[in-house]
Design brief:
Two copies of one chain form a homodimer. Chain A has 182 residues and is an alpha+beta fold. The first copy, chain A, is built from five helices and eight strands. The model of chain A has no long low-confidence stretch (mean pLDDT 94).
Chain lengths: 182, 182
């Protein structure tokens, strides 16, 4: 298999651009403890754990939401966004056995997109897919925000985790980070 | 990156379970000539070309169609299905820039699922995704059928290739095969 052009590897270990502030196992097992996180296109030799994913085309977002998201979103790498979160998620076999319209209906009833939109542009987000690489998680979602927006981020997660969609989440880890000055 | 549990590798070369009867470059470049095709989970050393993909969850099929397809479909590996086809396809950037609802609308107007359904159970089909592996093609579709059903298969392809969806196809190769008795 060829290396992906748009793949990303998150490595927990002793080096990296991000310092791991905390890790909470929301559902299921925690990852092994690590002090730093490196984000790159290649796995690091000294890593304690490695998670790989790829950016892809939109799977649920419709055209209207795509335009609204584009209008309100700011990119990753903003100087003021000193905090970040990596949230790996795995969903159940029941989720993946559903047809596209069935999954889209749950996604819609959970108000997944409108909830995320409520926190734009403060909470920047990028989704990576892992499931088709036979990785332990299905999704790796990366968030960046200013330290003072962390309570808003927590509020967003609380709303999502109380939704019908999260009944299909069988494994979720919440890793909080801050930029590591060298 | 871990090896995929459900990945497949098609290798054109000097050995394999299938003999390549013909290759037509429908749109874009042909693949290098090869006499045999091997289908496995690992790349073969002596291959002339290699294409890798993974089976995944349904991306467009709704629940009603999923049930209708399940009722009418027969699996791969039927003894009478001595012929096969491998059709790698790449779609344009315009296709991939569309939101889910826009792609689904084209897929629906093209009558992609009903056309395929017209040829069940004679034409068995399995779809593999390649795009997210940064492969040269986006999809690798594998078909198996009896030799006498090849005209029906050709008819199905003609209908699909005349559809709106195929206006987004920028590269398509049509490889016909027969089981190789050892």
């Amino acid at each position: 298999m060829r290396t992906q052009n748009f793949g990303v590897t998150f490595c927990g270990g002793s080096t990296g651009q991000w310092r791991i502030r905390s890790q909470i196992a929301v559902t299921g097992q925690a990852l092994p403890d690590a002090e730093f996180l490196s984000v790159s296109e290649q796995a690091s030799q000294q890593s304690v754990w490695t998670l790989t994913g790829f950016a892809s085309n939109l799977r649920y977002t419709g055209a209207l939401d795509r335009e609204a998201l584009k209008d309100r979103s700011e990119g990753l790498g903003r100087p003021a966004a000193r905090h970040a979160a990596l949230i790996p998620i795995r969903k159940s076999d029941a989720w993946w056995a559903m047809a596209q319209d069935e999954r889209l209906a749950v996604f819609g009833r959970a108000r997944h997109t409108p909830i995320g939109m409520d926190y734009l542009p403060a909470i920047a987000r990028k989704l990576y897919h892992s499931r088709d690489l036979a990785e332990p998680f299905d999704f790796l979602t990366w968030f960046e925000f200013a330290a003072e927006d962390e309570p808003a981020f927590d509020h967003m997660l609380e709303r999502l985790r109380n939704s019908e969609e999260w009944q299909y989440v069988t494994h979720e880890v919440d890793i909080r980070l801050s930029r590591h000055e060298i």
